[in-house]
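Bumping with the actual sequence this time:
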Amino acid sequence: MTAAACPAAVILHPLANTAIFRKPGMEMRPTDVTFYGILSEIDAKCEVRSDGLHVSLAVIIAAARGPATQGDVANFTYFLAVVGPGDQILSKRSFGVRVNVPQNAKRAGVTDHFDETIPLGGRAPSALRIIAGFQQTPQDIDFYQHFRGR
């Protein structure tokens, strides 16, 4: 095992925020948001192994109460993708994460930890990028285009 430089690990800015609504599928307004989700940080540590690049990832996800909060639990889905030259997606996986927000708190967060092995296929780690973002529906995208400032 050899320590290696990691591929750049970045959060896609347009997909760094999401919202959970009181009634999914209905018109989405800021007053109907139960929780906002924020992908706050991603950190990667790497080692070259015989089977590829072993990456230990830590992803920080925060939840903030919205005006229509019901309960203390926010469930989000985010993705991680490995992107090669020419922005070719080499792999993509989705992850569910649960954030418990105590009743007396406006916001809470969790750090999601996991390990992945990325086959390098002759590529240098620097030729790859790890990108993260929330899985967004067309309605989510529309909401953020119209109500950016919350």
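The tokens above came from a reply further down the thread. The two ends are 47 Å apart (CA to CA).
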